[in-house]
Design a protein that fits this description.
With 311 residues, the chain is mainly β. The protein is built from 1 helix and 24 strands.
C-alpha cells in the first residue's frame, strides 16, 4: 500500500538521527583531494549537497546557503556567486552542459535555471503545478547525449520529465508509488550513452532504470539494508566504465555495482575523518577516474579513486 507523502517526508527528515543509518561499513581508503570545510568564505561550504564536473574539468559545488562555487581539478577555488532567490529554500542539484553552462533545479521555486559560467541567467523554465512541464519540487537533473534535459521531482507528483535544451517538454516517465516503474522521492538521475535513465528512487530504497526514448520501465535493483548490494536512501546514481555508482545518504557511503546490480566496491563509512562520510548527498565522476562526493554534514567535498575494487 502506498505510504502517504507526509509520512515519507517525516521519515526522511528523521534519517540523520536514526541509529540504524550508522551501520558499520568497510574502512575507507583515504580521499585523494578535499575541498572546503565549514564556513561562508569563498572556497568553504555550508552543507554542500550538489556537485558537477564540467567538460573542461571545472568542479562546481552548490551548498545549502545557495552559493554556487567553481574549483579547478586540483581543488583551487576559482569563482562563485549566490543564487538570486533563497528565501523559500535552496537548490538540490546542478549539472553542466557541453557549453559550460550550469543548470540548477531550484527546488523551492519550481523551476530550472541555466547560468553562464560567469553567473548570468541564460534561460529558465517551469512553474508550480502538476500539469505536464510543471513541477512540485524539482530536485535531480541530468543531460542526455543529445542535449535533452531530464528533471526528477517529488511532492506527490513524483516523476521524471524530459525537456529539450530550451525547456520544451518531450516526455514524462514514472508516477508516485511503490510498484516497479513508480517512484517515491526520486532524488537524482543519470542518462547513459544508450539513453537509459537511471533514477535514485530514494524512499523506495532502489535504483530504477527507464528507456529515455519512450519512458518504459526496464529494470531495478537494490532493496533496503546495510549489507553489500543493499541501499538506504540512495540520493544519486551514475554510470561510467561499464559500472554503476550509488550514493547512500542513510548508509554514509558510495557503492560500486555491475550494471545488473551486483556489488563490487564500497567507498566511505560514517565519520568525520578524511575518507569518511556524514550523510553524503550527491557525487560526480571526472575524466581522471575520481568520484567527487558532497560530504554534506562534514561541510566538504571529497574525491575518491574509482579504479580499485574493494578496500
Amino acid at each position: 500500500m502506498i505510504r502517504r507523502f507526509l509520512a515519507l517526508t517525516l521519515l526522511l527528515a528523521a534519517v540523520p538521527g536514526c541509529d540504524r543509518a550508522q551501520a558499520a561499513t568497510p574502512a575507507p581508503r583515504s580521499a585523494a583531494t578535499v575541498l572546503g570545510g565549514p564556513g561562508n568564505q569563498p572556497g568553504r561550504f555550508v552543507k554542500p549537497r550538489a556537485v558537477a564536473v564540467a567538460p573542461d574539468g571545472t568542479i562546481w559545488v552548490m551548498d545549502r546557503s545557495g552559493r554556487l562555487q567553481a574549483f579547478n581539478d586540483a581543488g583551487t577555488y576559482l569563482r562563485g556567486w549566490t543564487m538570486r532567490d533563497v528565501e523559500k529554500g535552496t537548490p538540490e542539484d546542478i549539472e553542466v552542459d557541453a557549453e559550460g553552462n550550469v543548470l540548477v533545479t531550484e527546488t523551492h521555486y519550481a523551476r530550472v535555471t541555466v547560468y553562464s559560467p560567469a553567473g548570468e541567467v541564460v534561460r529558465e523554465w517551469g512553474s508550480w503545478g502538476k500539469d505536464p512541464g510543471q513541477f512540485i519540487y524539482p530536485v535531480g537533473i541530468a543531460i542526455g547525449t543529445d542535449g535533452a534535459v531530464y528533471v526528477s521531482e517529488y511532492g506527490g507528483n513524483d516523476r521524471v520529465q524530459k525537456f529539450d535544451r530550451e525547456g520544451r517538454l518531450l516526455l514524462a516517465l514514472g508516477s508516485f508509488g511503490e510498484e516497479p516503474g513508480q517512484l517515491q522521492r526520486p532524488e537524482d538521475l543519470w542518462v547513459d550513452a544508450h539513453d537509459r535513465v537511471w533514477v535514485a528512487d530514494a524512499c523506495n530504497q532502489r535504483i530504477q532504470v527507464f528507456d529515455g526514448k519512450d519512458g518504459r520501465f526496464l529494470f531495478s535493483w537494490g532493496g533496503e539494508g546495510d549489507g553489500p548490494g543493499k541501499l538506504r536512501y540512495p540520493y544519486d546514481v551514475a554510470v561510467a566504465g561499464g559500472a554503476g555508482w550509488g550514493c547512500e545518504y542513510g548508509n554514509h557511503r558510495l557503492q560500486k555495482f555491475t550494471l545488473e546490480g551486483k556489488p563490487l566496491a564500497v567507498r566511505g563509512s560514517v565519520g568525520r575523518a578524511i575518507g569518511e562520510l556524514n550523510f553524503p548527498w550527491d557525487f560526480a565522476l571526472d575524466a581522471r577516474g575520481r568520484v567527487w562526493v558532497a560530504d554534506t554534514q562534514n561541510h566538504r567535498v571529497q574525491a575518491f579513486p574509482t579504479g580499485e575494487e574493494g578496500r
